[in-house]
Automatic annotation (TrEMBL):
Protein's membrane topology: Peripheral membrane protein
Coiled coil: 337-382
Subcellular location per the Swiss-Prot or TrEMBL entry: Cytoplasm; Golgi apparatus, cis-Golgi network membrane; Secreted
Lineage of origin: Eukaryota, Metazoa, Chordata, Craniata, Vertebrata
Protein species of origin: Podarcis muralis (Wall lizard)
Name of the protein: Nucleobindin-1
Signal peptide: 1-17
Family statement: Belongs to the nucleobindin family.
Keywords from the UniProt entry: Calcium, Coiled coil, Cytoplasm, DNA-binding, Golgi apparatus, Guanine-nucleotide releasing factor, Membrane, Metal-binding, Phosphoprotein, Repeat, Secreted, Signal
C-alpha cells in the first residue's frame, strides 16, 4: 500500500545509499529520500514517528526484513517493545504533543460551534481520531503504531477517490459560474463571450499527441528527451533503474508521476489563460492510476521491476494509440451538472429563507420596541399625574381651621388619616387628565410591562 512505502520508506531512510542490485525478497521495501506530503491531517505526526523510529537500529533491521503484510497486520508494531528507552521516550513525547494538538483543534471547533461553559467529554471526542489510542494519552505503544498504520492505509486509499470528486465539483462550479455570467450579459456581449470561450477551448486542444502513460512510446520519449539516450537502445530494465530515483527497487507513486511531466507539459502551460493547472493535477493523477491499474499486479501501490517488465510484454504496451486528456473526457454529465445546480440553488434558497426569517424577526423586534417605548411613556405620564394629584391633596389635609378661624388639633399625620375622612378629589383634577386607574389595576399594568421590557432586551444588543 501507499503507506507501506511511506512508512517503511521513511523508516528505511538509509536505503537511498543501498546499491541498485538488491535481493529479490527485499524489493518490497521502499524508500523515497524524503516522503512527500500525504495530505493527511496527521501527516506531521506520522512523519515524526517515522523519523524517530528510523533512529532505532533494531526497529530498522526488523523493518528491512518485514514485508507489506507484516506491516499491515501489526506484526511490525510488536517490535516496538524492543526499541531503546531513549526512542520510546521520544515517541511518548510525540504522542503527548499530538494529543494536545488534537485537544486544541477540538476546543477551537467547540468554541466556533457550541456555547461556552458546556462540559466537554474530551475522551469520547478524542475517539474520533483513529490514528492514536485515546485510552492512553501519555505513552506511545504498539497499539498506537498499529492504529497509525491502519488509519493511514485507509485514508490514503480514499484519498484519490476524494480528489476526483473534488475535481468534478470544481469543474461543475466553473461551468455553472460561466453559464450564470453569460445570462447576465446582453445578446451581443454574450455572443462575444461565447466566441472567446470557444476559441480558448480550441487553443487548449491544440497540442502534440499525448502518449498513453506507461506505454512504449511514452517511456521512449522520456528515455530520449529527459534521459538523453539513444531511442534505438531503449531497454526497460535500464529505464526502470534510472527512474527508481531513490534506488529502493520499486517505482512509487511519486517516481511514476515524475515520468508524466513531459506529457503534461505538452498540454498545460501555466502562462496560458486556457490551461487550467488544476486540470493538470487531475491529469497527473489519472495517468498514475492508469499505470498502476495495468502494472501493479499485487495492488500495493508500488511497481517492482518484475511487475514493470511483465507490463512491457503486454500488447497494450507496444500498441497504445493515444491518451484521452481531461478536456476530452466528460468529467460530468449534463444531468449531473443539473443536479449540482439544483443543489446549489436549494442551498441558496435555504440561505435566502434564513436571511428573510432573520430580517422579519428583526423587524418584529423593532416594532415591539416601539410599542414598549410608547407604553413606557404612557406609564410615566400616569405616574406623573398621580404625583401631581398627591401634591394637590397635601394642602387640604393640612390642619383644618375651625368655624371661628382657630386651628383644630390634628392627632394623626395626614397620610394616616382614616379613609372616610379623606375628602374626594377635587372635580377639576379628574376633568383635566386621562382617567386615573385604581392602584391595584395600575399594579397589574406595571407587572407585564416590566416582563415585556425584559424580553425586549435582545434588541438593544
Ligand atoms: Ca523507488
Ligand atoms: Ca506492486
Amino acid at each position: 500500500m501507499h503507506l507501506t512505502w511511506l512508512l517503511s520508506a521513511a523508516l528505511l531512510g538509509l536505503a537511498t545509499c543501498v546499491p541498485i542490485e538488491r535481493p529479490k525478497e527485499k524489493q518490497e521495501e521502499e524508500t523515497p529520500p524524503e516522503a512527500p506530503d500525504t495530505g493527511l491531517y496527521y501527516h506531521r505526526y506520522l512523519q515524526e514517528v517515522i523519523n524517530v523510529l528510523e533512529t532505532d537500529g533494531h526497529f530498522r533491521e526488523k523493518l528491512q526484513a518485514a514485508n507489506a503484510d507484516d506491516i499491515k497486520s501489526g506484526k511490525l508494531s510488536k517490535e516496538l517493545d524492543f526499541v531503546s528507552h531513549h526512542v520510546r521516550t521520544k515517541l511518548d513525547e510525540l504522542k503527548r504533543q499530538e494529543v494536545s494538538r488534537l485537544r486544541m483543534l477540538l476546543k477551537a471547533k467547540m468554541d466556533a460551534t457550541m456555547e461556552q461553559d458546556v462540559q466537554v467529554d474530551h475522551l469520547s471526542l478524542l475517539k474520533q481520531f483513529e490514528h492514536l489510542d485515546p485510552q492512553n494519552q501519555h505513552t506511545f505503544e504498539a497499539r498506537d503504531l498499529e492504529l497509525l498504520i491502519q488509519a493511514a492505509t485507509k485514508d490514503l486509499e480514499n484519498y484519490d477517490a476524494a480528489h476526483h470528486e473534488e475535481f468534478k465539483r470544481y469543474e461543475m462550479m466553473k461551468e455553472h459560474e460561466r453559464r450564470e455570467y453569460l445570462k447576465s450579459l446582453d445578446e451581443e456581449k454574450r455572443r462575444e463571450e461565447e466566441a472567446h470561450f470557444e476559441a480558448l477551448k480550441k487553443k487548449h486542444k491544440e497540442h502534440p499527441k499525448v502518449n498513453v502513460p506507461g506505454s512504449r512510446d511514452q517511456l521512449k520519449e522520456v528515455w530520449q528527451e529527459t534521459d538523453g539516450l539513444d531511442p534505438n537502445e531503449f531497454n526497460p530494465k535500464t529505464f526502470f533503474k534510472l527512474h527508481d530515483t531513490n534506488s529502493d527497487g520499486v517505482l512509487d507513486e511519486q517516481e511514476l508521476e515524475a515520468l508524466f511531466t513531459k506529457e503534461l507539459e505538452k498540454v498545460y502551460d501555466p502562462r496560458n489563460e486556457e490551461d487550467d493547472m488544476l486540470e493538470m493535477e487531475e491529469e497527473r493523477l489519472r495517468m498514475r492510476e492508469h499505470v498502476m491499474q495495468n502494472v501493479d499486479l499485487n495492488k500495493d501501490r508500488l511497481v517492482t521491476l518484475e511487475e514493470f517488465l511483465k507490463s512491457t510484454q503486454k500488447k497494450e504496451f507496444n500498441e497504445a494509440d493515444g491518451w484521452e486528456t481531461v478536456e476530452e473526457t466528460q468529467v460530468y454529465s449534463e444531468a449531473e451538472l443539473q443536479r449540482f445546480e439544483a443543489e446549489l440553488a436549494a442551498q441558496q434558497a435555504e440561505l435566502g429563507r434564513q436571511a428573510e426569517q432573520l430580517r422579519q424577526q428583526h423587524q418584529e423586534l423593532q416594532q415591539r420596541q416601539v410599542e414598549l417605548d410608547a407604553q413606557k411613556k404612557e406609564f410615566q405620564q400616569v405616574v406623573l399625574q398621580m404625583e401631581q394629584r398627591k401634591a394637590q391633596k397635601q394642602p387640604e389635609q393640612a390642619p383644618h381651621a375651625g368655624p371661628d378661624g382657630e386651628l383644630k388639633f390634628q392627632a394623626q399625620p395626614p397620610h394616616a388619616a382614616p379613609a372616610d375622612q379623606t375628602p374626594p378629589p377635587p372635580p377639576e383634577s379628574r376633568a383635566g387628565g386621562p382617567a386615573l386607574p385604581d392602584a391595584p389595576a395600575l399594579q397589574n399594568q406595571v407587572e407585564p410591562l416590566q416582563n415585556q421590557q425584559h424580553h425586549a432586551n435582545p434588541v438593544e444588543h
